[in-house]
Design goal:
Rossmann fold; alpha/beta; 3 domains; six-stranded parallel beta sheet; 433 residues; 17 helices; five-stranded parallel beta sheet
């Protein structure tokens, strides 16, 4: 174990100010190269539309496109030829996602704030949403389901999907099959920041949407941030993250597997483990070296761990909790003896996995919870994707005649204090009547 695998190791208290900054400031906007390159891509799409998207498919995806939209017959063919075990797994995941999100559907509500005065809110589904499913290093049919199934549950009228083309000119067959399973309306072979720009501003082929959802790499996350003046987005869901809190009861090999599972997503993934004692940290380090040596995506994993991988031991549980709440990670794994007790003390987590048997991989694919989650420390202000992301609220008010007369004087006083005398007159007229 002489080879250095992780960027940061040792006691958390010894972490330098620069190291703490790197671990806590993970937003893509802190990377000037990503920010500028994304700005250029968005500007190209706004200026040249479909032509820019076709050019970028050739540049970034090595794909020659004759059209951006994928005919539905190709999705149906992809689903029909999908290996039965894979189809069964996707169908099971879709059922669980639908069941969980149906349970979370909001309901209309109305309250009588005083006699004769009613205030209400009604959830209305959006008209058109855009789902982004990453490609490139791997295909993500699970991201298709995580975006499109809740949109359908929420009652969205039209769901479009953008996913990068393979060299064949189409998204991978499993992504197309997932689109058919999830009842997507239209699919476009468009990836990266260009896809986000196309859905935000519209092109001749790609329609403008009301909201964009879905995870992606650093450029996709940055593009979502940059287009927020034109369209709503779910959250800055960028490169994957894991924070594991581990005590002496944990299986070191299981923790190492969880670290690798998130690190293999992207060289920019951030994987941090806090061990509650030094001996546990040593066991995990040994298990991690053994696991990396056998990992099929070893190159990506080692690049990720050497950039933003960390294994610390802490002096106390309080130190671990404080760091976790500042870190505000996408995935938090509680590999401890009493995870429920610890859960109550955590805030600002994208999603929390209680116990080492609650593998993050289960949440990524099959539990029914959504895997589109805030990254870059933004779990302190954003939540994971849900049916609420596919709705807006219509509020309404009703004031009965007798109540209008009772409100008139106080409303008039407040309006006069702001110099809005027509408001005051409008209110007082109901007392006079």
């Amino acid at each position: 174990m002489t080879e250095k695998l992780l960027r940061f190791q040792g006691p958390l208290s010894a972490l330098s100010a620069e190291g703490r900054r790197l671990l806590l400031d993970r937003t893509t906007s802190s990377d000037e190269k990503v920010r500028r390159r994304t700005e250029e891509i968005i500007a190209r799409v706004k200026k040249d539309g479909d032509a820019a998207l076709v050019q970028m498919a050739a540049e970034f995806d090595k794909a020659t496109l004759s059209a951006l939209e994928v005919p539905r017959a190709r999705w149906q063919e992809a689903l029909a030829t999908l290996p039965p075990p894979l189809r069964a797994s996707l169908e099971r995941a879709a059922r669980n996602i639908a069941k969980a999100h149906e349970a979370f559907l909001p309901k209309p509500m109305e309250v009588e704030t005083e006699p004769g005065v009613y205030v209400g809110r009604r959830p209305d589904p959006l008209s058109r949403v855009g789902v982004y499913a990453p490609g490139g290093r791997a295909a993500y049919p699970s991201s298709v389901l995580m975006g499109a199934v809740p949109a359908r549950v929420a009652g969205v009228s039209e769901v479009i999907l953008c996913s990068p083309p393979s060299p064949s000119g189409l998204p991978t067959p499993v992504v197309l099959a997932a689109a058919e399973l999830a009842k997507v309306d239209r699919v476009f072979a468009v990836g990266g920041a260009g896809a986000i720009a196309a859905m935000a501003y519209g092109t001749s082929s790609v329609p403008r949407v009301d909201r964009i959802v879905g995870p992606g790499n650093a450029y996709v996350a940055e593009a979502k941030t940059q287009v927020t003046g034109a369209v709503a987005v779910d959250s800055p869901a960028g490169p994957s993250e894991l924070l594991a809190l581990v005590d002496a009861s944990a299986d070191a090999a299981a923790v190492a597997r969880e670290m690798l599972a998130q690190a293999e997503h992207d060289p920019r993934a951030c994987v941090v483990t806090l061990a509650l004692d030094e001996a546990t940290a040593t066991r995990i380090e040994k298990a991690l070296h053994e696991a990396v040596a056998q990992a099929p995506r070893r190159e990506i994993i080692t690049e990720s761990l050497s950039a933003l991988g960390a294994l610390f031991h802490v002096a106390s549980l309080e130190e671990a909790i404080d760091f976790s709440n500042y870190f505000a990670g996408e995935h938090t794994l509680l590999a401890v003896k009493d995870p429920k007790a610890l859960l109550a003390r955590l805030r600002n987590q994208g999603t929390v996995f209680l116990g080492e048997t609650s593998s993050v991989a289960f949440g990524d694919y099959m539990t029914g919870s959504n895997h589109v989650l805030p990254t870059g420390g933004l779990a302190r202000s954003y939540s994971g994707l849900s049916v609420l992301d596919f709705m807006r609220w219509t509020s309404y008010q009703r004031v009965e005649r007798a109540a209008a007369a009772r409100l008139a004087d106080d409303v008039g006083v407040l309006a006069d204090s702001e110099g809005l005398h027509a408001h005051a007159a409008a209110a007082r007229a109901w007392k006079e009547r």
